[in-house]
Design a protein that fits this description.
The chain is α/β, with parallel strands linked by helices. Helix content is 46%, strand content 21%. The strands form four sheets. It has a six-stranded mixed sheet with strand order 12-9-13-16-14-15, with helices on both faces. A four-stranded antiparallel sheet has the order 4-1-8-7. A four-stranded antiparallel sheet has the order 2-3-6-5, with no helix packed on it. Helix 6 (255-273) packs across helix 11 (397-425) and helix 8 runs antiparallel to helix 11 (397-425). It is elongated. The protein starts with a helix and ends with a helix.
């Protein structure tokens, strides 16, 4: 028992001695590592505080430009370093090749300087310049940890030329902690807000664009395309009135609800058509009330081919009046396909689809959206809300569907007419 105790004591003493020697040997290095780590943490915190102080003085758009310039500057430094390393490597390879071909560097007895001069005159091969490429997309946003691109919501507001990007897990310091770089030429202003642990980045564009998105595990990428780059033809569809403006009213029935219902059905028809050559934009798809100037500006800014506005008619004192009529700009220039041609097709197709009475075309130059539209414009009055029989139809979803189909066919037919005319003119 005593021998065993002595043996264990000896082993423990040896191990402790070895540990003590190792600790004494590595202790200074360990202390230096701990000190370096602490200094690194302090330096990182100080740099972060300095960055916060700098960025807090900037707008979101200025932060975008600042980050982009910083990344580009760093990329240039890295490019220059890579170029120098390549040149040094090329020089070393040239020197090795020259030495292997002429190891003793013999001299010509008649011209002893020939070999040295010939070697000295050999310059390293100039490497081709490599184009600096920092971004592969027009804008890229670093995603917060735990967030992937599928969780980001991108909402386009064409009426206000806005793109709103909802970013989960983005707090009020998102723009300071995560990288946002991109081209700012197409952006008029940018704003960032955070609420409930989620962020909203709002971009107001200089012109109407389509935001095309993609992502990987770390970044959301955006590219901004003009609608004319994406579509052969562009249509703007307007649901009359909305919001605080009910339009014509009969008891509890409002024009703004009927026009919206028809436009939503028109959208369904275009969405189901699968025709990606036609871009269709809507002034409203909810109970909002865009301004008249905003509605027509959407069509003009898009350089639309057609602009149609859906309305419901009303006449005081005559409940028997019925039928569809279409307004156009009677003072517009007479062209191969003008506002009157478009209005006539709308009248023909909507009465054909619904079976309603075909009334007539109506002069509409006094109407703001008709008078100011650069595209052929038509304002369709789908029926009279003060006529009980027509009101029953106008609030009926099946009749609304027929009306939507009539407008849809009128738009498609008009585009085909425009295409034929353009082909004949070339």
């Amino acid at each position: 028992m005593e021998k065993r105790l002595v043996r264990y004591t000896t082993i423990f003493t040896c191990l402790f001695s070895v540990f003590a020697c190792v600790a004494v040997w590595f202790l200074p290095a360990l202390e230096r590592s701990v000190e370096d780590f602490a200094q690194g943490m302090i330096r990182e915190r100080r740099e972060r505080e300095e960055r916060y102080a700098l960025l807090e003085q900037m707008t979101a758009l200025e932060i975008l430009d600042y980050n982009t310039k910083q990344v580009q500057a760093q990329a240039r430094i890295e490019q220059e370093q890579a170029r120098k390393e390549q040149e040094e490597k090329a020089q070393a390879e040239n020197a090795n090749q020259a030495e292997s071909k002429n190891p003793k560097n013999p001299k010509n007895p008649e011209n002893p300087n020939e070999s040295e001069d010939s070697n000295a005159s050999q310059e390293p091969e100039k490497l081709p310049e490599v184009a600096l490429q920092v971004m592969t997309h027009q804008m890229q946003l670093e995603l917060p940890k735990g967030t992937d691109g599928s969780q980001v919501q991108v909402i386009q507001d064409y009426m206000n030329r806005q793109i709103r990007i909802g970013i989960p897990r983005a707090d009020d310091k998102y723009l300071y902690d995560y990288q946002m770089i991109g081209e700012s030429e197409k952006i008029e202003s940018m704003d960032y807000t955070s609420s409930g642990g989620n962020g909203m980045l709002s971009l107001t564009m200089k012109n109407i664009v389509e935001a095309q998105t993609s992502s990987d595990e770390n970044y959301l990428y955006l590219d901004f395309k003009s609608p004319k780059e994406l579509y052969d033809r562009i249509i703007v569809v307007d649901a009359g009135h909305g919001g605080s403006d009910p339009g014509a009213v009969s008891a509890q029935y409002y024009e703004k609800h009927m026009t919206l219902a028809v436009v939503q059905k028109i959208k369904e028809l275009f969405d189901r058509s699968g025709d990606r050559t036609i871009g269709v934009y809507y002034t409203r798809l909810d109970d909002s009330d865009p301004s008249l100037s905003g509605r027509v500006a959407l069509a003009n800014n898009l350089d639309a081919d057609l602009f149609v506005s859906i309305h419901i008619n009303s006449v005081n004192g005559d409940a028997s009046v019925q039928g569809i009529e279409v307004m156009y700009d009677e003072l517009a220039a007479d062209t191969a396909f003008d506002t009157q041609d478009f209005a006539q097709i709308c009248l023909d197709e909507t009465t054909k689809a619904t079976g309603a009475v075909k009334r007539h075309l109506v002069n509409g130059h006094q109407i703001h959206i008709i008078r100011n539209s650069r595209a052929p414009a038509a304002l369709i009055e789908l029926g009279f809300i003060n006529n009980p029989m027509e009101l029953a139809n106008l609030i009926d979803p099946s009749y609304q569907q027929k009306a939507a189909e009539g407008v849809y066919h009128a738009l498609v037919r008009s585009l085909k007419r425009i295409e034929r005319i353009e082909k004949n003119q070339t």
